[in-house]
Write a structure and sequence with these properties.
By secondary structure, the protein is of the alpha/beta class. It contains 20 helices and seven strands. The strands form two sheets. The protein has a five-stranded mixed beta sheet, sandwiched between helices. It is globular and about 80 Å long.
Length: 508
């Protein structure tokens, strides 16, 4: 009897996989795909990893001070990962869950928008094919940052904008306003897709849109008002950070930035989507995907095709004009609709029998690529991206703090990302003094920090630097310690300096 209950889920799965292909429900296949994708990228890393990547630790540490703006980015990503941290009480599970939530939501809305132009079956195929892009695999899934939180809002803007111009319903315009505000609170790069959709609207404008468009813009600005006030109150730190990024002297890196940076950006971005394009070509070659037959020709240059081309073209144009170096991870949303756009433009159709094999292949590729990535980082001494401090650093710092005071550790500072990890992994969620600067941490109260004291963590063990910091911050003592790094077969260590500025002795 027990055996029967034990194998009943396996029997159900076998029955589903062996069922007649003609009876396959595309939405059911898509549901299995999203479920499998989520489980792979939450369970496996949560079991195998004891730390998170630097951008994730940074957002976790920022979130200990709830604010409408921070010194580098808008707040939405920080809010989400810290909500997950409070929910799960585990940084690894919180980080991977937040990342998977964003990517799964992105895939869902890619499917919903694509379905309007290709139908359910081909939308499922296009969506699963899009997930073969490197932005949906391994490193990019494991590292939650502002690019991750921006992606679903970028795609939702496209989805609700498409609904607005086709239905002109008030609720769609309201949703468009909400996701537009959310996208800006996620990352300012979202202004690109807002600009792209406005350009499309200019070509397809009708006067019936005017009132609802103005209403949506007003609602968006209303939602953004607290953020804009916070940015001004904090001295426009986020805009200062962006200005520093785009105003770097490009000639320092290359003699011809206006030519070399766009070419490099195009090469890198195409490299990230190359796996998806290669598999699409393979399926066309094997006739699992083929041009539509006996169907009425459709308009080729539709909104879906526009979304597949315009974002990348705009960014390359900006890079060409300004000489801006495009970071690889900035391309997260550019190719969201590339595969659907190709299928729409060339009117490609998939065979019904392709759905289940493609589902199996997609889950196999995602689990396999994740396993290879984790194994390479775990076993090889060359790859150190996932080898970071975590719980042991927090425990050592807490023990050292307890030697001097029984007060809780409320504030931390440091350098080289160690301050982020210390703040993220201390259980009492201390606030971060960013780069030892109150200007970069305007949400902190100087007098309160002086009353509570401060723990600093500094890379290495440089006696001269340590004595300078001790004098500057009126620290009581410091010590050099070796901290083990996580996620490695052969234990690796790094040396840091812990420095205590006890309560009532902090420098104002």
């Amino acid at each position: 009897m027990r055996t029967q209950y034990l194998f009943s889920p396996l029997s159900a799965l076998k029955t589903y996989l062996m069922r007649d292909a003609e009876a396959t429900n595309p939405k059911q296949v898509f549901g299995f795909f999203i479920l499998g994708f989520s489980l792979i990228y939450i369970l496996i890393p949560s079991i195998g990893y004891q730390s998170v990547l630097p951008d994730s630790a940074q957002n976790l540490s920022w979130g200990h001070s709830w604010s409408w703006s921070y010194n580098r980015h808008p707040p939405l990503g920080t809010w989400l990962i810290n909500f997950m941290s409070l929910l799960f009480a585990n940084n690894e599970v919180a980080t991977f869950s937040a990342s998977v939530l964003c990517l799964s939501t992105s895939l869902l809305f890619i499917f919903l928008l694509t379905k309007r132009y290709l139908g359910s079956q081909d939308a499922v195929v296009a969506c699963m094919m899009s997930s073969f892009c490197l932005y949906y695999q391994a490193n990019f899934v494991l590292q939650f940052n502002q690019n991750t939180i921006m992606l679903p809002f970028w795609i939702m803007i496209c989805y609700f904008f498409d609904r607005c111009i086709h239905t002109n319903r008030i609720q769609d315009w309201i949703f468009l306003a909400l996701v537009t505000a959310g996208s800006i609170l996620a990352k300012y790069e979202s202004l690109l897709i807002i600009f792209i959709t406005l350009i499309y609207l200019l070509r397809h404008f009708e006067y019936k849109f005017l009132f609802k468009l103005v209403m949506a813009m007003g609602l968006t600005l209303l939602i953004l008002t607290p953020h804009l006030m916070s940015v001004a109150q904090h001295g426009f730190l986020t805009l200062e950070f962006i200005h520093g990024k785009v105003s770097e002297d490009p000639s320092y890196y290359t003699l011809h930035p206006h030519m070399s940076y766009p070419i490099k950006a195009l090469r890198e971005q195409l490299g990230h989507i190359a796996p998806a394009l290669a598999i699409l070509i393979l399926l066309i070659k094997t006739k699992r995907i083929h041009p539509a037959r006996n169907e009425k020709p459709k308009e080729k240059w539709n909104f879906l095709v526009y979304l597949g081309i315009a974002p990348l073209c705009l960014v390359i144009l900006i890079s060409f004009i300004v000489g801006l170096k495009i970071q690889p991870e900035w391309g997260f949303p550019f190719f969201s609709f590339t595969v659907p756009a190709i299928m729409s433009y060339f009117q490609l159709k998939s065979r019904t029998a392709l759905l289940k094999p493609l589902l199996f292949m997609a889950l196999l590729i995602h689990s396999g690529s994740l396993g290879i990535y984790m194994a390479a980082n775990y076993c090889s001494s060359k790859y150190t991206r996932t080898n970071n401090p975590s719980y042991m650093l927090a425990q050592e710092a807490q023990r050292y703090w307890n030697h001097f005071t029984n007060k809780p550790l409320r504030y931390v500072a440091g350098d080289e990302n160690y301050d982020y990890y210390l703040a993220a992994y201390l259980p009492n969620r201390p606030k971060l003094l960013e780069a030892y600067s109150f200007r970069l941490s305007p949400w902190l109260d100087k007098r309160e920090l002086k009353r509570q004291g401060l723990m600093m963590v500094i890379q290495g063990c440089d006696p001269i630097k340590n004595h300078q910091l001790k004098t500057q911050f009126l620290a009581q003592d410091f010590k050099c310690v070796e901290i083990p790094l996580s996620n490695k077969y052969r234990q690796q260590f790094t040396t840091v300096t812990l420095m205590v500025v006890p309560p009532s002795y902090s420098k104002d």
